[in-house]
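RECORD TYPE: protein structure
NAME: HD-GYP domain-containing protein
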Amino acid sequence: MDYVSIRVSTLRGDQKIDFNAYVKINDKMILYLRRGDSFEGERLKRLKDKKLRKMYILTDEENSYRTYLQKNIETAYDDTTGKDIQTRADIIQGSQQNNAEEVFENPENVESYNYCKDAAGKYVNFIMSNAQALSAVMNIENTDKTISHHGVTVSTLSIALAQKLGITDPKKTQLLTLGALLHDYGHHHSPLNLNQPLDSMSPEDLALWKKHPIEGAQKVQDKKHFDQTVINIIGQHEETINGTGPKGLREKDMDPLAVLVSSANAMDRLITFEGVPKAEAAKKLMIDHVGKHPLQHIQHLNDILKGL
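PREDICTED:
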């Protein structure tokens, strides 16, 4: 029998699956979830605890899987279904994560990029128009410390920050979200262990870390379907307004949207990769990163985290 892999991040919510889902153990396919069951509650938690990224389905059930995905995401974005906000947020967050991974794995694919871009616009509306959506997404913990989940969190913080700053132009917020989602593309093939504070990295690790924005931007610079704003965010998201980032750019030299993503990224790096509690992250950012990010950004991000 022929199998095709699917991402665990897409298997969320209470919708019953119309296919059998398998896990691969020692080259054997073991049936994990039968057609007619759903991936909610404990089943999903066990998969996350095992840090399992991929499952498998029979190749001839791929259309059923695609239909499941489409129905799941349409239901999650529909305000009239009566579904609770956490279930909807789980599905949408997983979908955003999946979209980022699709682009990371195949940046040449125009269709994947455009789908990710379209979904970024829908995601902005979801966060901006649902009062509880922000905290529902932000409370989904990045247990396996993936850059795709980190990208969703940074994009979420970036949207909330843009809203506080009065940036509501749909084109700008869409590109802001897309750039934030894909900002760490330079880490996709990197051997670097991100789950450590920057100030305790070895000189070799720090050198690798400093290269990732430039390398990420260079790899997509020739892709005509990539928006220049997105490339700017990928290349500048570790820059700081005082010129102490990898390229030494100051605020006046940076794309304004990259300045926003830089602030949101610095905040989530502390939370996700350095283990700083959300309640203390803004204070630490203000003390340890003084002068690196606009004070107004840090104050707004502090308010955003307090409201979760």
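COMMENT: The longest strand covers residues 28-33.
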